[in-house]
Write the structure tokens for this entry.
Amino acid sequence: MNRSDFLYLGTDKETIDVVILYPSIDNVSYVKMHATNSREFPYVRCEEDNCELCNEGSYALTKMWIPVYNIKEDRIQFWDRSSKFMHIALENIFNKYPDPSRYVFRITRHGVKGDLHTFYGLEPIAKNDIPYEDIAIRFSNYFV
Ligand SMILES: [Zn+2]
């Protein structure tokens, strides 16, 4: 994986239309990562019990890498969010749309670059006609 595998909204009011590849709340998962200085890819996966970085005192971040289908670019990407995003936004989505993968969501960034109070709006704008399984199969290399 590299940076282009991640969704990126850099400017205020920028939008991206995606299918969130969570057919149910049970599909939500978290990853533990250590931040690095690498330009190529800013995270190293935490090895949990045998983790060298943990042993060196580095703090492991709990992240959500939300798999999305980027409609315009016709590719799978991941939306890098902190674990708090579940409570900030996703729980709400699952309450209203138990299978979010059946909708096209428009993500809107609210906040200029560098603004620590930046937040993201998530709004359903259409039904998604492509079954979740068909998208997942097309991009199965990401779902290992
Ligand atoms: Zn670790």
In short: The radius of gyration is 16 Å. Residues 3-142 form one domain. The chain is about 15% helix and 35% strand. Helices lie at 52-55, 85-96, 132-138.
